[in-house]
Amino acid sequence: MAKIASRIAQLTGEGALAVFTRAKELEKTGRSIIHLELGEPDFHPAAPVVDALRAAVADGRDRYVATRGIPPLRSAIADYLKRTRGLDVAAEQVLVAPGCKMALALAMMALIEPGDEVLYPDPSFPIYPSFTRGLGAKAVPYALREENKFQPDLAEIAAKITPKTRMLIFNSPNNPTGTVFSDSGIGQIAELAKKHDLWVIADEIYARILFRGEYKSIWALPGMAERTVIIDGFSKSFAMTGWRLGYAVAQKHVIDALDMLVLNTFTCTAEFSQVAAIEALRDSTNAVPAMVEEYRKRRDLFVEKLNRIPGFRCQSPDGAFYAWVNIEETGMPAEEVQRVLLEEAGVAGIAGAAFGAEGKNYVRFSLVSATHLLEDALERIQRVSSRWGAAVAR
After folding, report:
1. Average confidence score pLDDT of the chain
2. HSE toward the beta carbon, residue 249, CA cutoff 13 A
């Protein structure tokens, strides 16, 4: 029998999707499940965005278009980054892709050679190490630990840089911890990148979902625009997950390289969704600030009440929409806590090891359900906590 390419064996899936599949199986049997496993907003795009999509389809905007994205959208993204992050970006430095994951994959394919080493945060989005390995490179984790408020340990990162290190990836606000990397941490990452001539991939997909302060992009620091690739998109901030719209921002010669990969793979991103994305960036109804304020309320409610449940401990996140919960005091493995919550309580969360070895004593909950569902979930968790409550009391 003909063989599958060996690189496929280097790839891993996403724990969230496995939990989601099991949750759906339980729902088919009549079970009530509260879904806190997927990072998918329960909001939908604002009405003007949907109207723009409908009009674009009606106007026949469904043809092949420029491989890098339609010019008006690339210009709109550049303006948006100036307005929301103070970045000086030209339209020619933007490439549109069908989803952030595709933009990330293009950047990694363009910049990583087999045998290179890639530094990535642990815990984090599981595709970082998975795709690194799939490209024949070595994925090297650096830890985000609770005792350091999930900030990167710059001494650890520096110690792990070798002559083979090609790239450093980070995600701020971080999935799954919700941590916003400090200004000093970002500055030190920039200095290490310049000192060792590293590429930096800054995954800024949650940059607008911030509960305090203003977002600081590493791109804006001296000497970093020429070695940074920003990955961002419309799934989280604009609640457009199924629209599959992401983008990469980099120097033009990097965009040229990504464009060659587009030509050899998916050709272009759907025109009608790009047209609607321009309207999303305008945010004429202020949907994004309203959504972020709702996430803030959910965070405050969920974290406060969760910390009252025996065996659970959660730091309040500064961004994104996740609760990263330490369950070590339950005396149970996180996988067993995940199972009990899903099978007995009907609450779907994800055991933290799905995000890396540093997550072994954690469970992640997505705060993407309405307040009444979060309150119901908390009550269900409280009820099943009797399974480990006696052990905690001892």
Report:
1. 96
2. 29
